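SAMPLE LOG
Freezer: B-3
Tube label: C17
Construct: single chain, 192 aa
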Amino acid sequence: MPNFFSAFTSEVFRPLATLIIPGAIGISTWFVGLLWHFAALKQLVSYNHTEAAFVILLAMIFAGLVFEDAGARWESMLDHRADTKTDKLHSRQWFDYLRSAFVADPIGRRYLRSLVLRLKFELGVAFSMTSAGCGLVWLAFLGLNCRVFLACGMICALFVVWGLTEAGQTHQVLGCTRAELLKEIRIVGLKP
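STRUCTURE (predicted):
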């Protein structure tokens, strides 16, 4: 029997978590607004499911790439802020780590990869929720109930604050983990 979870390897899970999910969140309210405002588009989508799904997938990927780019710029700002606190030690350690080739793969590298994925997801969610919030404003002009608008707007704002706050903390842990990986690595259990 095939293992269902084997499909969620890092090659599949990374783009799903960093591009597809944030992209879907970011375009969701805009797509609803388009269907609500343009009856002809709604009819076109309802008659052409496959083609519409393909176009929506492309829009999600495009939006996800835009949000990932915005997240990379935010991460660069976090790097600059860390450099001002540590007299550029953060960037020196980052570039030293990039120049390092490990004979044995330390456990910390897998942890570092998971932290990078988490950082990209947190930033992607923050920027996609910003886009979804802007789409909510348009939906409010189209006639969205005020209570629904306020509730959804609060959810978007909370996720933006959560994403940016968590990204800052994850960025600090990434810096500490990279600094530790630059130290001497112990290999345990090898016989001479």
